[in-house]
Amino acid sequence: MAWLIKKLAELSAWGFALIVLMMVFEVVARYGFGAPTFWAHEIAGLLGALAFLLGGAFCMIEGSHMRVTVLRDKLSPGLFRLTEYLSLGCGLLYLGALTYSGWLISQRALFRFMPDGSWFPERSGSSWNTPLPAFIKFALFIGAFLFLAAVLRQFYLLVRHRADINGRPE
């Protein structure tokens, strides 16, 4: 699972480069040619959302989450380990709830049908009116699930004593 999280996060990080290129194109098209795009902002929002949603799981796998450890660094190894259990336990509860609610909202956004049976997912309401909001909600579910899996992996490593004092895998 860790390799999948890393690959997805690295792939989605390239979205930021695409966002920059799209915004340059948008500015040139809008102010240089008086012909703004109708798609750049929606696609940029999707790419940015994907990268941020996968970033949490990636940071957990890499052990690069920002930590404020002023007090924890002064604790004995036993108390330090207890704080790791508590923080990972809170993360499991939060991400479990976020994964569940992400599934519920993505179901409501994606699985919508017209009376004639045709598929009609939640739409943006813009001039382009894409179903991107529905896909972003599904990406929230996937991102929360992967983050939950990463925290569960870290908790497992801590329980099996295969993590060093900083919580990173040995």
TrEMBL record:
GO cellular component annotations of the record: plasma membrane
Organism superkingdom: Bacteria
Sequence intervals crossing the membrane: 12-33, 39-61, 82-105, 134-152
Domain Tripartite ATP-independent periplasmic transporters DctQ component: 19-160
Topological type in the membrane: Multi-pass membrane protein
Subcellular location(s) per record: Cell inner membrane
One MF annotation (Gene Ontology) recorded for this entry: transmembrane transporter activity
InterPro entries cross-referenced by the UniProt entry: DctQ, TRAP_DctQ
Oligomer status and interactors: The complex comprises the extracytoplasmic solute receptor protein and the two transmembrane proteins.
Family to which this protein belongs: Belongs to the TRAP transporter small permease family.
Protein name (record): TRAP transporter small permease protein
UniProt source species: Roseobacter insulae
